[in-house]
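A.,

Following up on our hallway conversation. Structure tokens first:
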């Protein structure tokens, strides 16, 4: 059985964070705090991209390499991490999204 995180679930969780805003970002939907992106949703590929710190990126990617993996360029080296929404368990995605939000929110304080 495939459990998938839908855009509705993604949006509901992302918009539950204090000061979160949803805005277009090229062909994607972005979720931001004070104009800084903490997550994007790519509907065409059913993927999220989250901004994790180095430790969180390493932990998520090593535990689930087919679900979490760095963006394959300099952005990935800065913590931007792809999440396969058709494969990720909702509770694991929620944990990663919270960490992404907290990571970006902490830099804006």
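Then the amino acids I'd put at each of the 109 positions:
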């Amino acid at each position: 059985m495939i459990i998938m995180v839908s855009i509705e679930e993604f949006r509901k969780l992302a918009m539950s964070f204090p000061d979160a805003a949803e805005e277009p970002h090229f062909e994607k939907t972005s979720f931001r705090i004070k104009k800084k992106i903490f997550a994007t949703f790519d509907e065409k590929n059913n993927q999220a991209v989250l901004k994790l710190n180095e430790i969180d990126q390493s932990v998520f990617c090593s535990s689930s390499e087919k679900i979490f993996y760095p963006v394959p360029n300099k952005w990935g080296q800065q913590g931007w991490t792809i999440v396969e929404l058709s494969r990720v368990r909702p509770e694991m995605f929620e944990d990663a999204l919270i960490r992404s939000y907290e990571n970006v929110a902490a830099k804006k304080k």
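The chain has four helices and six strands. Curious whether your intuition agrees with the design.

B.
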